[in-house]
Structures are given as C-alpha cells and as structure tokens.
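Morning. Coffee machine broken again, so started the prediction first thing and wrote up yesterday's gels while waiting. Chain of 256 residues, entered below exactly as on the submission form.
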Amino acid sequence: MRGKAFIGLWRKEWVLMKVYYFVILIVGLVFAVGVSGSIQEAHMFMITGVVLVLHMFILSALLMYSLNREVNQLQLFLHSPQSAAVLIGVKFLQSLLFMVVSMTIFGFITVLTAKQWVVLTYGELILAVVVANMFIIGQSLLLAVLLLFLWVIHQILRTYLGGLSIVISIILFVAITGITSMIRSTAFYEQLVGWGKMKIKMESVSGDLLSVFGVTVHGDMPGGIPVVLGELLAWGLAIAVLYTLSIVLMDRKVEV
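Came back before lunch.
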C-alpha cells in the first residue's frame, strides 16, 4: 500500500514539474553552446563546467518552486493521508534525481569536449568530474535542507505575522549562514572535525582544472585532493538535523 502511495505521489510530482525539468536542461545546453561560441578563448568544457557549478542551486530552486506550487492548495497537500516525511521526501528525491541526471549529462559533455584541450586520460577527466559533482551535490543538499527548514518556519509564522514572516525568514537565513561561517573558521571547529584525513588520489589532475568546477583546493595537491572524514560527518549531520526538524515542524506546527 505504501509503495502504491509513493508511486502515486511520484507521478503527481512528475506531472507538476516535468516541464521545468526539460526547460532547465534545454536552457543549460543552449547557454553552454551559445557562450562557448561567442566568447573569445572560451572552450565548451569550461562552460559546461560552469553549468555544473550552477547545479549547486538547482535542487533548492526546484524544491522551493514545487513547495510553493502547493501553497495555493496547502490544505489538500497537508491533509493527505501520507506523512510530511513522504510528501516532502518524494519532492526532494525527484528533484535530486533530476539534478544527478542533469549533472551526468553535462559531466559527459565536459569530459568529451575537454579531451582535446586538457592533457589527461579519459579516466582522469572522469574522476575529476565525479569529485567535482560530489562536492556540488554536498553543497546543494545543505542549501536545500536549510531553505526547506526556513520555508517551514515561514509557513508557521505567516499564520500569525502575515507577510512579515518572509522578512524574518530572510534574516534567519543571513544569520544562520553568517554564524555557520564564523564557527567553521574557529580553531575549535578545526579540532572537533579535523580527524580522519585522507586523500583522493589524483596525481595528474591540477587544482586549476578542479577550480573550473567550483572545487577549491588549498595547497599544491601533493598526491591528491585532501578529504577530512570528520568534516564530512559534520556536513551529513547538519543535513540530517535540518531535514528532520523541517519534517517534525511541518507535521506538528504548520496550520492551514
């Protein structure tokens, strides 16, 4: 029964969003081809790399757009026999799946078009694109759950404050991102999450190439890209906490 309900919600979400999925793909492709052909010294792989970086915002944009489409019928949306975890989960998963598919397409184009300009094997190029995509997906997940949390807060506050709730949500966004940035720059944070250091072996791949995809590498990359397991765990924990809080608040506090 739950499987049928999930499939039904998945199909409903597809009908709601399919046009926007195709529009995003087409706009991205047209942008990449148009810009690479109009800017001097611009190569196709560099532009598709930029498009890959822009995917960092696609998950959040799709999720927020889909949720706001439901606002006009919020009573029907929230009074579904399915829990908020299922209702939001379907939207989240479908948007994430589209993002991964889109990134795979642009990553494939990047690898093919970069080969004539970059002295790397196809294997090295693919590894560079995969690492960049993992970084982008991690960033996009955190941004998406933060905006989901603030969207839920907005829905709760607007019952009492009306349009002022949007202003409060924006202030909260600025405050949360600012405080998070300050915490991450402290020595205490480094001590807390700076364990489990390892490297992704990429001896032939330069930091300059990865910077095309938005991956900032500090230092000269001796032997590969540094990865800190403690920071990855903190990242995953922040995503899980924000998502869980959003679902719990939506179930218990959002009124229609």
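The CA atoms of residues 18 and 116 lie 35 Å apart. Going to sketch it on the whiteboard this afternoon.
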